[in-house]
Amino acid sequence: MSAPSEEKKGVIFAIMAYVMWGLAPIYFKLIDEVGALEILAHRIIWSFLFLLVVIGIMKKWDDVSAILKNRRTTLILLGSSVLLCFNWGMFIWAVNSGHILDASLGYYINPLLNVLLGVMFLGERLKILPGVAVALATIGVVIQVVSFGSFPVISFCLATSFAFYGLIRKTIAVDSLTGLLLESLVMLPMALIYWYFYAQGPASNMLNNDTALNLLLLGTALVTTLPLLCFIAGAKRIKYSTMGFLQYIGPSIMFVLALVMYKEEVGIDRWVTFGFIWSALLIFTFDSLKGMKKRAAVA
Prior knowledge:
By secondary structure, the chain is mostly helical. Helix content is about 80%, strand content about 0%. It has twelve helices and no strands. Helix 4 packs across helix 8 (about 175-200). The chain is globular. The two termini are about 15 Å apart. The relative contact order is 0.21.
């Protein structure tokens, strides 16, 4: 049996990432008695330590050193770390404040933003059907703003921060592990300062917590790093627009969780917006599948 192509590997990595992200709200709901910023601090600190161990086992310190010697790459990773920190914090707050549907909508919007960013920054062509899909999504949001007087702020914050993060990581030649380690290193001082000086919740002193809570806090490292590493590995191997096609596995899982497990209400404004975006994604899916069949026939 022949080894899977790089594109197939990329698809597998992407699917794994989006399934894990789709299920992430379940995990963060288990520790919703801890404040969102405090959970964010734990995500950053334990993710950094976990990545240190992985880098050490894989003996990739030369890669880390090479990146640090490249001023341009280091500055770019500084920017991507800011976007990543914002996205992590916003997602935790949304989930634990009863806004899983807003998070779901954000990650439904994200693949369509990926299409626009691919056209604007990566030289990818915007074909007719993807253009129609982007227009439908835009119409859905405009109707919500004009008719219902509400703008999906949480959704757009999540969508834009992660879309630009993915774009940045795709355009620099940085290994996924070392890049994420350095991004975590950038965020680490802020996390430590917040945890030591400002975190005042009952769980801020881990010596006073029960074992289960501490294990869950430590486990944020795995919940954070595993899907992100899969995402970065996938983004390096397949077209950015294809990543967008696969991405709505995650928000679909979130949508079901919000309705079935956490009983969030869907107002008429949300149904209208979701309806337009689902229609856009159906068109986008049809076009992506058609393109994949053409590429397979040529190969």
